[in-house]
Amino acid sequence: MMDIGLILALLAMGAFGGFAAGLLGIGGGMVLVPFITMIFTARGIAPELTIHMAIATSLATILFTSLSSVRAHHKHGAVLWPVVKMLAPGILVGSWIGPWIGKQMNAPVLAAFFGVFVAFSATQMLIGKKPAAARALPGTAGMFATGGVIGTLSGIVGAGGGFVSVPFMTWCGVRIHNAVATSAALGFPIALSGTISNIYFGWGEAGLPEYSLGFIYLPALAIIALASVSMAPLGARTAHKMPVRQLQRVFAVILYSLATYMFWKAAH
Fold it and tell me: Keywords in UniProt for this one (predicted)?
């Protein structure tokens, strides 16, 4: 059983991740994975499993947080459902493959890969520059391939894919509000396929703690999802009342710190 200190830590982490997701329109995975890794390490889970489990557990939380986010965006008519339908098939394939690729990486390589991804995302947030519209959305084959790339990256790092899908859609002439809303809708198929993949490829793995389902640690999933879903709407409301650009810069610094921790983890 989990002690009260661990429960409180997971609640605080889930609340912070959910608030940040609602406030800044990012997936909680970039915040959650390093913190879950720290907690799993402190709990004595085998070092070769901590990052795999942190990524899998983080990805599974998006099943719940994406539904909350999509509902709000859909009420404003901002989700481009035809775009979702075109990207979803490739995303489902890529999100299944991503965890398999992650499983082939040893823990230090996976930690370093995640660190690079977070540092890139932090830089993107710090600069705050959106790509200029350069072309229209591609055809069916191009959207399938793009969805595959988004899904694979998301499956490897346990994130919702927004830092890939939003710039892509903006580059293709989609308005930023529609791109963010549509990206939120894409989080569910990413999380669904990636979660099933993490259960499948983690099934029977030696050294997994009790109450694990494949690479997913169910107690942590339940607590983090509860806190994240509760706080995401508050973050979204706050976004309309505060200078989000300054908050993005502060959050970018936090992400750099988390990336540094993952690089440190990769070296030890």
Answer: Cell membrane, Membrane, Transmembrane, Transmembrane helix
